[in-house]
């Protein structure tokens, strides 16, 4: 199993269908689990997907429309029932705190108090990650209610080059010391720097963009990400409805991915107005403007984060 993958728990928008549950997306990242927008039925979808309450470290809500949050009570109570001991951080729009309270305490249960609350406000805000191997930033989007997009970003690092290390006589514990300190004296007395024995390694990135019309805040969220989970509620023929109700079309999601240099685009949050026969059209419309990898999300899919780019690799470009 990949240490960095998306587990798709639901892909429908306002109304679930026979084939699609309400929203729900678990991003696994090096042993951390970030659950985005758990809609109604998420707890059962977790069972079907083989996801445990112990796999959840974060619950991140974009906004408080029901298809993005009505699964919160079941998930919270499952965390308590299953005896999860590690902290679970809940991130949500501060303007909807009253709704969070109702969801958080929707029924009687033996609360274990492992869930801590982190309401967000303002146009852009970093979220404290408590030592997680990534940073998390939210940006306010443009929907009918306050809604936020998320960007997860691994710090940049370096890739050590074995041939150069050998050339300088750096081996064993000296390699780790060079990484930590940036310079050292080699066994032959020469000074060796980290730059001489490594190349830059850009950190991997992911973004989650749901329930928004086109707006300026999307670009910095999706810029250069390896994985973008984006709503594609409507097809282009219904672009007027998308604008009116604060949503994206598949083609708009594709254009955002192309402009941001995204590597893999996951389309989801499909309106119930479309049937199974319409599904190929979502990917086809996105592909008219985006030349990268496109995944048409289906419930219970597992989508790996693309392998890390080598220095010579190229990112996708628009068509």
TrEMBL record:
Q: Where is the active site?
A: 67 (proton acceptor)
Query: Subunit structure of this entry?
Result: Homodimer.
Function (record text): Zinc phosphodiesterase, which displays some tRNA 3'-processing endonuclease activity. Probably involved in tRNA maturation, by removing a 3'-trailer from precursor tRNA.
**Source organism:** Actinoallomurus bryophytorum
Q: How is the cofactor bound?
A: Binds 2 Zn(2+) ions.
Q: This chain belongs to which protein, by name?
A: Ribonuclease Z
Please tell me where Zn(2+) 2 binds in this chain.
67-68, 211, 269
Write down a Pfam family by its short name.
Lactamase_B
Where along this sequence does the record place binding of Zn(2+) 1? Answer: 63, 65, 143, 211
If you read the UniProt record, what top EC class would you report for this enzyme, in one word? hydrolase
């Amino acid at each position: 199993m990949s240490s960095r993958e998306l587990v798709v728990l639901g892909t429908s928008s306002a109304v679930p269908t026979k084939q699609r549950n309400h929203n729900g997306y678990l991003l696994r990242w090096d042993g951390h689990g970030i659950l985005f927008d758990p809609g109604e039925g998420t707890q059962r979808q977790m069972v079907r997907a083989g996801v445990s309450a112990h796999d959840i470290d974060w619950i991140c809500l974009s906004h408080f429309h029901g298809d993005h949050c009505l699964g919160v009570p079941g998930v919270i109570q499952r965390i308590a029932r299953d005896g999860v001991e590690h902290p679970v951080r809940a991130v949500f729009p501060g303007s909807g705190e009253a709704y969070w309270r109702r969801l958080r305490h929707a029924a009687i249960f033996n609360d274990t108090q492992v869930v801590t609350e982190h309401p967000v406000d303002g146009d852009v805000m970093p979220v404290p990650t408590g030592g997680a191997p990534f940073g998390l930033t939210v940006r306010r989007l443009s929907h009918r209610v306050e809604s936020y997009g998320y960007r997860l970003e691994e710090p940049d690092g370096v890739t050590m080059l074995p041939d150069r290390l050998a050339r300088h006589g750096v081996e064993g514990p000296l390699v780790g010391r060079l990484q930590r300190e940036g310079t050292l004296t080699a066994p032959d007395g020469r000074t060796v720097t980290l730059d001489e024995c490594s190349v830059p390694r850009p950190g991997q990135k992911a973004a989650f963009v749901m329930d928004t019309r086109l707006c300026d805040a999307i670009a910095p969220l999706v810029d250069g990400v390896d994985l973008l989970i984006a709503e594609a509620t409507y097809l282009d023929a219904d672009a007027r409805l998308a604008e009116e109700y604060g949503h994206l079309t598949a083609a708009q999601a594709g254009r955002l991915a192309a402009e941001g240099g995204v590597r893999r685009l996951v389309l989801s949050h499909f309106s119930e107005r479309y049937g199974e026969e319409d599904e190929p059209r979502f990917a086809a419309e996105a592909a008219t403007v985006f030349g990268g990898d496109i995944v048409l999300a289906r419930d219970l899919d597992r989508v790996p984060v693309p392998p890390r780019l080598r220095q010579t690799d190229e990112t996708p470009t628009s068509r």
